[in-house]
Fold:
Amino acid sequence: MPENTVTAPEAIKANPERPLIDVILESLDDAKAEGIVAVDITGKSSLADHMVVASGRSQRHVGAVADQLVNAVREAGYGKPRTEGLPFCDWVLVDAGDVIVHIFRPEVRDFYSIEKMWQADFAADAH
Structure:
């Protein structure tokens, strides 16, 4: 392949039609995820720009929401996100690059309360 050509996935990823956060929020809503919270973590973490937390009603629902989300991100031209936790589906993490999504069973989400930690307003130089 010539050096100056771009493979199809890279060409799509370079100019996706919709912002990634919009694709993710719409997919979660379509999959009937509950308690969807999007937290802008720009400046709070170098890991991503947004963190999204949502719940599924059961382990099966958590897995289905995660699968639908992965497909939606890929179809929107952002490539296949990395996932963790699919074998058990108590807490599935979907790393889509600029957006990290946590999908929990309700009891697990209540226990960890991670969105509360990231929603706290803290200054960069506070000790």
The CA atoms of residues 37 and 106 lie 13 Å apart. The longest strand covers residues 34-40. Residues 4-14, 123-127 have pLDDT under 50 and may be disordered.
